[in-house]
């Protein structure tokens, strides 16, 4: 007996993501899914962003890691609400993991929720979690060949933050090549060049972020 | 990289549909996997055999239709198909105004039940 079932395999995830998104909207929270390879500087960018927006926007954070809570501790030091998710091996956050921790955050008091995904340039791009936009980081030290090696994340993101530009003189990476190939994959991609270490470029990124929310 | 999660999701869809229609078990599940979906067919098959154990699809076979990346070029007005996971310009004329039409599939579309 043949049965036709035309259904997207990630349908269950997408359904929960849609519920999360609805809850964010009702609570007046703008949600960002922040993705990158391990060590690109997601948590450093969060620290800088939170410091810049203090007193202007109320920010909450969900930290996704395979194990450990170092990142959540760094964010908690800045006195913003933070929840740590340990995926216990899974290479990405999915909508259900987010749904389960939303009760632990004061959503109604927040303007912006940043969901820091598991460090991985592949899988996080495939799972919606209920975000308004996806933002990705690429650090200069990772090399300028990444857009064409990991195209999906560049295609899915609304903004690309090139971090660690203070290291440019010490690498062979070409920002022009990254820009050209990223924009070929995604012509609407907004690109920011920053250094979380020196603070260079953070202002422009933060200003753009504010323009989305207000 | 996360083929186990994908297998778990597709099995859930198959098992839920099978039970809803009042059948006892599943013999075959057919899926379409696009080259640009990020899912490796071999890993999907391998993980499927582990994930199906203990379900009503325990004896089921997974058939994977691999869908290449294809599309249409607005420059030369030709259709194209590539043997890559992505395409940034027309493989025939190099124009960048292209419309990708297939390759992102990740669908279950048919199953044999009893």
Keyphrases for this structure?
heterodimer; A: 214 residues; alpha/beta; globular; B: 114 residues; alpha+beta; three-stranded mixed β-sheet; 2 helices
Structural class of chain A: alpha/beta
Main interface: chain pair and counts: A-B, 29 and 31 residues
The overall pLDDT average of chain B reads 93
How big a fraction of the residues of chain B is strand?
25-35%
Q: What does the radius of gyration of chain B come to? A: 17 Å
- What's the mean pLDDT score of chain A? 95
Kindly report how far apart the N and C termini of chain A lie.
55 Å
Number of strands of chain B: 6
Structural class of chain B: alpha+beta
Strands ordered across the widest β-sheet of chain A: 4-3-5-2-6-7-8
**Poorly predicted ranges of chain A (pLDDT <50, ≥5 residues)?**
none
Helices of chain B, by number, come to 2
Terminal Cα span of chain B: 32 Å
Order of helices and strands of chain A: EHEHEHEHEEHHEHEH
Count of helical stretches of chain A: 8
| Strand order in space, largest sheet of chain B | 2-1-6
Overall radius of gyration of chain A? 17 Å
Strand content of chain A: 15-25%
Note down, in words, how this protein is organized.
- The complex is a heterodimer of chains A (214) and B (114).
- Helix content of chain A is 36%, strand content 21%.
- Chain A has eight helices and eight strands, in the order E-H-E-H-E-H-E-H-E-E-H-H-E-H-E-H.
- In chain A, helix 1 (11-27) runs parallel beside helix 4.
- The termini of chain A are far apart.
- Helix content of chain B is 25%, strand content 33%.
- With 114 residues, chain B is α+β, with helices and mostly antiparallel strands.
- In chain B, helix 1 crosses helix 2 (41-51).
- In chain B, the strands form two sheets. In chain B, strands 2-1-6 form a three-stranded mixed beta sheet. In chain B, strands 4-3-5 form a three-stranded antiparallel beta sheet, with no helix packed on it.
- The chains are: A alpha/beta (214), B alpha+beta (114).
- Chains A and B meet through strand 1, helix 1, helix 6 and helix 7 of A and helix 1 and strand 6 of B.
- Strand 1 (2-8) of chain A pairs antiparallel with strand 6 (106-113) of chain B, so a sheet runs across the interface.
